[in-house]
């Protein structure tokens, strides 16, 4: 497990448990105690956690700031990706939309497509869809509310997803890898995205180019499960790599 993956693991443990200990992390990540301690210090220096004796605790404001920062980063690119995804839709479709900054940008584009049904675990996305087009039927998936990322998570959300069969799932990704598929930094988010993909006829991944060739901690699905990837400003050679694996990529030049 490299440094980036270890940091994601620590942050995910914190998001679930609220507190982690150096000794436990050392065993879980199969690294030395000193390595685990250095990782915690590095995350503390980035204001992503608070160090305590023997470990660290979650800093809610830091997690919230991290997600809020994503919401305000590359807005023009995310809106362009959302508009391109909208071109693949037509009236009467049913959609899953998972929680993410790019999927939120997509939600705001649905102003002129009639008779849509949207199912989401994100109150912000539900609100954005309603404000864009209040004729849309919206189902809110209920569960444990995670305030720092503005979404509902947990087994109850998964069970509700399994009660639906949608036409399209619109999924964000923390990482996209040709060999390892799409991934997320949080186990809960990965499980929700996976359930949406498994209960949809077609799946579209929205991501900016910073996610390409990255692998987050938790796997969502292999690329064979994805029908379209909409991404910005990748090279022609990168597009051809996807095509050689029969993966459809829509590359937006911004």
TrEMBL record:
Domain HTH deoR-type: 3-58
Highest taxon above the source species: Bacteria
Key words of the record: DNA-binding, Transcription, Transcription regulation
Signal peptide (UniProt feature, chain positions): none
Gene3D superfamilies assigned: 3.40.50.1360
UniProt entry tagged with the keyword Transcription: yes
GO terms of molecular function: DNA binding; DNA-binding transcription factor activity
PANTHER family assigned: AGA OPERON TRANSCRIPTIONAL REPRESSOR-RELATED (PTHR30363:SF44), HTH-TYPE TRANSCRIPTIONAL REGULATOR SRLR-RELATED (PTHR30363)
Designated name of the protein: HTH-type transcriptional repressor glcR
Gene of this entry: glcR_1
């Amino acid at each position: 497990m490299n440094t980036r993956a270890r940091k994601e693991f620590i942050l995910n443990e914190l998001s679930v448990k609220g507190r982690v200990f150096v000794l436990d992390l050392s065993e879980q990540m199969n690294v030395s105690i000193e390595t685990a301690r250095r990782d915690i210090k590095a995350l503390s220096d980035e204001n992503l956690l608070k160090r305590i004796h023997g470990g660290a605790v979650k800093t809610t404001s830091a997690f919230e700031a991290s997600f809020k920062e994503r919401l305000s980063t590359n807005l023009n690119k995310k809106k362009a990706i959302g508009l391109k995804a909208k071109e693949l839709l037509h009236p009467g479709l049913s959609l899953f939309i998972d929680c993410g900054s790019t999927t939120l940008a997509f939600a705001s584009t649905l102003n002129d497509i009639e008779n849509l049904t949207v199912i989401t675990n994100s109150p912000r996305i539900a609100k954005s869809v309603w404000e864009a087009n209040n004729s849309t039927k919206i189902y809110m998936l209920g569960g444990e509310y995670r305030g720092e990322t503005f979404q509902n998570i947990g087994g109850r959300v998964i069970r509700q997803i399994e009660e639906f069969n949608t036409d399209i799932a619109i999924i964000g990704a923390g990482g996209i890898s040709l060999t390892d598929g799409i991934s997320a930094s949080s186990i809960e988010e990965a499980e929700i995205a996976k359930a949406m993909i498994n209960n949809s006829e077609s799946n579209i991944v929205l991501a900016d180019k910073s996610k390409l060739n990255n692998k987050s901690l938790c796997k969502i699905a292999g690329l064979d499960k994805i029908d379209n990837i909409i991404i910005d400003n990748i090279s022609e050679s990168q597009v051809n790599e996807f095509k050689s694996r029969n993966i459809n990529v829509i590359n937006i030049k911004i």
